[in-house]
């Protein structure tokens, strides 16, 4: 089975060669590499020159990562599609493990793996491997995005059935696609670290997070079901959203953080028990502020 590796990039000339080299080091060798340059203004094209015909290089004006991934998907010739962000890396056995999982079960449409987070300026690696309970959570409700994009492989036929990335979304577009796939196909999770995810030092402001929340809400509403069980899943997803908003607001605006924490508890009181101690702390912070 041929794997099409889709790498969207924007101004990552300093890192993209590490991503490509990690693909070239794979023990599974039946693949093609498609790099979609989303309007880079640095030396990305020059950095890719050394790879010659090993990499299909596509350039487009800046339209966002979803559009870049979709452009790669349209040019892909493989039976399987694997996504790799241009600042992330794979361990050598990643593709072979995922292809084996796909071959073992034709009903599987998506295979994800564990990953290690590498923070800028830090040698320490934070490993993220789902527990059995979390895998069951994905299977039952998938109330948050458990899968980092660079860990995911999907069947090309899945995308023909459920569609590609929603280019109108600037946030949670990957979660939206995973949800659509899992509504129609089974999945396999490989509980090993096979991806290295690079975490950058970003200043996540209240304004930027609030802007992303609208996309998150759109995805939750899009996947609202009609049964009582699906209603509970819907509430749990909103509960998780409001909990994240509480975390963003808690230090600079504890009153706003308290508001969203209460909304999180009201939406689904029985998950994340740590919220109740946080409720006490935020209440005290509001009284002394």
From TrEMBL:
InterPro entries: Glyco_trans_2-like (IPR001173), Glycosyltransf_2 (IPR050834), Nucleotide-diphossugar_trans (IPR029044). Gene3D superfamilies: Spore Coat Polysaccharide Biosynthesis Protein SpsA, Chain A. SUPFAM superfamilies: Nucleotide-diphospho-sugar transferases. Residues 4-125 form the Glycosyltransferase 2-like domain. This is Glycosyltransferase. Transmembrane segments: none annotated. Pfam families: Glycos_transf_2. It comes from the Bacteria.
